[in-house]
Amino acid sequence: MNRLPPLRLLTTFSEVARLGSMREAANRLNVSQPAVTQALRDLEDHIGVELLDRSKRPARLTEDGQQLAIATRDGLGQISAAIEVMRARGLSREKQVTVACTLGMATYWLMPRLPDFYARCSDITVNVQAPPSDLPALIPGIDIVLRYGNGSWDGTGSVTKLFEERVFPVGKPELVQRLLSKNETLETAPLINVASPENFHWAGWQKYLERRTIRRANTKGPTFNNYVQATQAALDGQGLMLGWRSITGKLVRDGSLMEWPHGELDLDTAYYVIESETRSAAAVVFTEWLCSLRN
Asked: If DSSP codes are grouped into helix, strand and coil, which group holds residue 12?
């Protein structure tokens, strides 16, 4: 059996105890004074003790009433504070979006574009996660995934093509020009590799050379486990790396890196936006912004 009195009775009593007046409590609660009087009598009947000494004018709290006043003040205050925290958390979730993508995509494609999004939607916070896998998944807590591939994956949410991807060898301009001046080709040029157990869906030099029917004894050279490290090595002139539109496109456009002449290869792949079926309103806004870029 529930021994607690109805919450309505406790809140009425708490207001009377706080204000010291049934009339003021009635005004505060937007009810009649007789309704307050009846609520207090119902509370006393429920508990079995008198809470007000009505022999005095105005009525004063009894010792039991004072004890209950402290308990209701603290208890109702804690409940109110907890509800406010929950409301704030709920509003915060509606104004946040969490995106997962590869480290290279985050560093070279997404992050440089985020200032434009914040200029349009300053009230939304974007959290970016870069898991080690090159196929980030829609796990709890992730609203949107930016994923490279052919667009066919099992068990995913809504899939929308963002832009087609291209691969092309790139290197520091001075290195590319020096190699070309010596009539070197991709059969002999120094290469930079990216290899990791978690990154096996991206083409490496071996696949690229096979598709281009270029014969080479081996692809030995500096090896890194992500494209951010490999890109820095290319910027340092350590060799040629396989560049991708999402990773090295801007560096090529601003002259930091240079494409190997006639080296572009279409692998029939693209970048896709994958949305959770339970995405927030903020995630919907962010996806619309992503799709408006298309480059």
From this structure: helix
Structure tokens at 184: 């070197």
Strand 270-275 to 144-149 pairing: antiparallel
From CA 163, how far away is CA 269, in angstroms rounded?
Answer: 9
Q: Which two tokens stand for residue 41?
A: 């009598």
Walk me through the domains of the chain, giving residue ranges and CATH numbers.
7-92 (1.10.10.10), 95-164+270-293 (3.40.190.10), 167-259 (3.40.190.290)
- Residue 169 bridge partners (DSSP): 242
DSSP symbol at 256:
S
Which structure tokens are listed for 174?
Answer: 């001075």
pTM of the model: 0.63
Q: Are 226 and 133 in contact (CB under 8 A)?
A: no
Q: Quick one: CA torsion of 143, 246, 218, 233, rounded to 10 degrees?
A: -100
pLDDT in tens, 259-285: 999 999 988 888 999 988 777 788 889
Task: List, in sequence order, every residue forming a beta bridge with 277; answer none if it has no partner.
Answer: none
Tell me the per-residue pLDDT of 54-90, one tens digit each, with 9 for 90 and over.
887 778 888 888 888 888 888 877 877 777 666 656 5
